[in-house]
Amino acid sequence: MLRRVLRHLFTPQWVVRRHYPPALMEEIQRRIAEVERRHPGELRFVVEHALEPDALLCRLTPRERALEVFGLLRVWDTEHNNGVLVYVLHAEHAVEIVVDRGLARQVEQAEWDVLCRQVETHFRAGRFREGALAALDGAARLLEQHLPPRKAGRNELPDQPLLL
């Protein structure tokens, strides 16, 4: 527990901004727009530098925080219940993918979990660009495998990645 708290306390937001510079954030945004043209999912990519001390004391898991962020950002608020949140907790190099109920019926959670663990290996090795793009490409592959191609429609969620 103490080790986890220290990791979070000593992961300031500026460190994350250094690993996710504006050029990478723009590349992530372009990749989201590109892959969303191939499947019906609506992707959001969020990196949080660390959890707040009260969340750590409550032993909040990365998955639980991802579910909170999913709700706070209203990723669930799409016409076809097709929102996908790729959540990165930088202090732990943890990745969680939360999908809306429309997609959860189509793609097993175990498949998302495998993708998360693969992406975490990139982050643990300090390959943040590769990890971010692998998460988006992997999510797109799963959606393309299980769902029909995207029909012309509006983009319901912002493509811009978010640093918390």
Total beta-strand segments:
4
> Nearest-angstrom radius of gyration?
15 Å
Question: Strand percentage, roughly?
Answer: 5-15%
Could you tell me how far the N terminus lies from the C terminus, measured between alpha carbons in angstroms? 23 Å
CATH topology (level 3) name: Diaminopimelate Epimerase, Chain A, domain 1
CATH-derived architecture? Roll
Order of helices and strands: HHHEHHEEHHHE
Main β-sheet, spatial strand arrangement: 3-2-1-4
Q: How would you sum up the major sheet? A: 4 strands, mixed
Structural write-up:
With about 160 residues, the protein is of the alpha/beta class. The chain has one domain (about 1-164): Diaminopimelate Epimerase, Chain A, domain 1 (Roll). It is built from 8 helices and 4 strands; from the N terminus they run αααβααββαααβ. The chain has a 4-stranded mixed β-sheet with strand order 3-2-1-4, with helices on both faces. The longest helix has 19 residues, at about 130-145. The model has no long low-confidence stretch (mean pLDDT about 95).
Could you give the topology of this structure?
Layout: H1 2-9, H2 13-19, H3 22-36, E1 42-48, H4 53-57, H5 62-72, E2 83-89, E3 94-99, H6 101-104, H7 109-124, H8 128-146, E4 162-163
Parallel strand pairs: 1-2, 1-4
Antiparallel strand pairs: 2-3
Helix pairs in contact: 3-8, 7-8
